[in-house]
Amino acid sequence: MRYTLFYLKTLYHALNSSKENEANLLRKCKELEASIKVDRAKIASAVALTNEQIKEADIKVKQVEDFWKEQTTLVERMKRVEEDIVRVHQEMVEVY
């Protein structure tokens, strides 16, 4: 009988400890799941922001390229205008 009581007490403590460990593990799992959800939301936000920044950067690159094309065109026009001015000036000198 004494061994039965000792066995039952030991079994009770083991089961009780197991139940507490299970509860602790479930609580920890819930905390980790919540943390994962928060991190997943942060990652999604960061990815969306990064994609938006990439689009903005592409737009700015295109604007710079357009500006340089326009600048090149203006420089070419200015050279032609200067050449025309020199040519017209030479013609005026020849005429007078």
Structural class: mainly alpha
Tell me the fraction of residues in β-strands, as a range.
Answer: under 5%
Q: What are the segments in which pLDDT stays under 50 over at least 5 consecutive residues?
A: none
Q: What is the tally of beta strands? A: 0
With helices defined by DSSP (H or I, 4 residues minimum), what is the helix count?
A: 1
Terminal CA distance: 140 Å
Percent of residues in helical segments?
over 70%
Radius of gyration: 41 Å
Question: What profile does the largest beta sheet have?
Answer: none
The chain-level mean pLDDT equals 94
Coarse morphology: rod-shaped
Order of helices and strands: H
Question: Any overview of this molecule?
Answer:
With 96 residues, this protein is mainly α. Helices cover 98% and strands 0% of the residues. The chain contains one helix and no strands. The longest helix has 94 residues. The mean pLDDT is 94.
Task: Write a brief structural summary.
This protein has 96 residues and is mainly alpha-helical. The protein has one helix at 2-95.
